[in-house]
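Justification of computing resources. Each target in the renewal requires a structure prediction run like the one illustrated here; the chain below, 185 residues long, is used simply to show the kind of job we budget for.
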Amino acid sequence: MKKTSIVLVFALLLLTMSSSLVWAGATVKLGFEPGGNLSTNISGYLLGYGVDSGASVAGEYLAALNDKVEVGGGLEYQFKRNIRGLEAGFGFIPLYGTVKVKAPFSADLNTYFTGKIGYNYLTLDDKVAGFDYGGGLYYGLGFGVDLNEKFTVDAEYAVHKGELGYILKQPFDYTKIRLGVGYKF
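Resulting structure tokens:
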């Protein structure tokens, strides 16, 4: 599963880069998550853990509704990150719809807000055997700046929900802040 997911993500990126005329409006983003928080509810007890930093790659396609609003969708792949103090690693693969609203704060900056909502699939590394798991809701809010016609930088707060357990699945929530840079075609 791990190799298949990585191959699919990179195949999507290569396809996007090779057909830039067809994909006008597409953006490829590289992200860095400096850390995050993981929480789960087991038998009525809320447990929280810190999460090591991680990286992600995403592809988005946006179409303009007017000069202020763009809508579209995207797919993100998170490389595995470990839970602090444990050997266990996990990641999510969210598929989402997104809206981008331009909100210039000054004449010199091309700033915007984003909102995302969708479904994400939870992935676990091979060290975590015997767990039953599943995906869930994904949503995020962000802010960014279009530096020029090709490059963008942004920051986003996101929540990834999933399920994890041996016999009965328990909620598994991962919250993070992502800092990213994007290339627009």
